[in-house]
Amino acid sequence: MPASRITLRRSLAAAAALPILAVALTACGYGSDKKDDTKAAATVGGKKLSADTVKIGYFPNLTHATALVGVQEGLFQKELGGTKLKASTFNAGPSEIEALNAGSIDIGWIGPSPSINGYTKSKGQSLRIIGGSASGGVKLVVNPDKIKSLDDVKGKKIATPQLGNTQDVAFLNWIATKGWKVDANSGKGDVSVVRTDNKVTPDAYKSGSIDGAWVPEPTASKLVAAGGKVLLDESDLWPDKKFVITNIIVSQKFLKEHPDVVEAVLRGSVNTNAWIKANPDKAKASANEALKTLSGKALPTDVIDPAWKSIETTDDPLAATLTSEADHAVKAGLLEKPDLAGIYDLTLLNKVLKAAGQPAVADAGLGVK
Q1: Average pLDDT of the chain?
Q2: CA atoms of 111 and 8, how far apart (whole Å)
Q3: What is the pLDDT of residue 39?
Q4: Helix, strand, coil % over all residues of the chain, rounded to 5
Q5: Cβ contacts of residue 88 below 8 Å, gap of 6+?
Q6: Is 25 left (phi over 0), alpha (psi -120 to 50) or beta?
Q7: 77-101: per-residue pLDDT in tens?
Q8: Among 333, 283, 290, which Cα is nearest to 313's?
Q9: Among 41, 110, 126, 209, which residue is least crowded by beta carbons within 10 Å?
Q10: What is the CA radius of gyration of the chain?
Q11: Which of 181, 187, 136 is closest to 161 using CA atoms?
């Protein structure tokens, strides 16, 4: 897949075009607003770093497992010592980017589409991607009575989370590889692309108003629990079956003023990912407990078990796949050649990885110079 640099069409900044990507969800969006409740982790003691508090943001979704587990288990706070961790949850990428730009959060877990959009809209001034978090966890789930093969998708109604979001772009790109035609904005064509909030997609499937959906976890496993069948796992379309679903971003201002705090959070992220891999069952239970605390309801076993297996936590931001995802949006007509040079700064992450005896990760030529 191509990994060339790409630049956002300037007209997307215009008001008429803003709904396309300015409201694009992250890879696993569920709605559009920040939760009212803000969780502040208790300080465990130790030396305070250069900031009294670091404010982080993430989604109450399994594809943000690093943040869920790291906060739940106190692994971030352990690295921060006397600097307090303040965590907020969001339901969509645009609101998290707005919070980052406003200084309401300093560091965030977020998907590739809003990362690209936030960087390009600010002309490269707002954020940097400083680490990876998760790969995979996206599936095409269909009604097996109506769709028995990939070719049967033609002429059917398939949901994606939102116009221009990461899964929407991926599905439009897959449609193009089949030689089918769909108008990206209206969703009309050889396949009817129905933009549907992930919160209501399972009910839409049960009612028969859609025939399937290209969605992230845990929505995909919720559809399977409702009788759907996984027709395609998106990871099968990528080299080595890896692609970025969640990465870590930071305000450039905060990175410049408090690199020691950013490094501590990244160390907490690396340690959390290692703990998740070493303790998968405990980590799954921890993530589900965090979801119960945040949303009031834990995921049932028949949903969380398959969903958890399909997501891989990773320190590597898989930079080449970010540029490929943006290139897919260009082909779909939603993006036009944005300049992503400088979107990555992996200096601190590679410092942390080196100290942990792990290999450095690459920025695909899109790092700060």
Answers
A1: 88
A2: 17
A3: 47
A4: 40, 20, 40
A5: 34, 35, 38, 39, 55, 56, 57, 99, 104, 105
A6: beta
A7: 999 999 999 999 988 888 899 999 9
A8: 283
A9: 209
A10: 19
A11: 187
Which residue spans within 101-188 are E strands per DSSP? 107-110, 127-136, 138-142, 157-160
Q: Of the given ranges (55-64, 283-292, 324-333), which has the lowest mean pLDDT?
A: 324-333
Residue type, 364: A
CA distance 93 to 28: 9
Q: Is the Cα torsion angle 347, 348, 351, 352 positive or negative in sign?
A: negative
Mean pLDDT computed over 279-297:
95
pLDDT tens digit string along 165-192? Answer: 889 989 999 999 999 999 999 999 999 9
User: Which residues share a beta bridge with 287?
Assistant: none
3-state SS, one letter per residue, for 83-119: CEEEEEEECCHHHHHHHHHHCCCCEEEECHHHHHHHH
Residue 209 DSSP SS3: coil
Residue 163 confidence (pLDDT): 87
What's the sign of the alpha-carbon dihedral 110, 115, 118, 123?
Answer: positive
For residue 354, give the 3-state DSSP assignment: helix
Q: Of 343, 106, 139, which is closest to residue 245 (Cα–Cα)?
A: 139
Bond from prior residue into 317 cis (ω within 30 degrees of 0): no
Q: Could you give the C-alpha distances from 89 to 122, 129, 244, in angstroms and in order?
A: 23, 19, 20
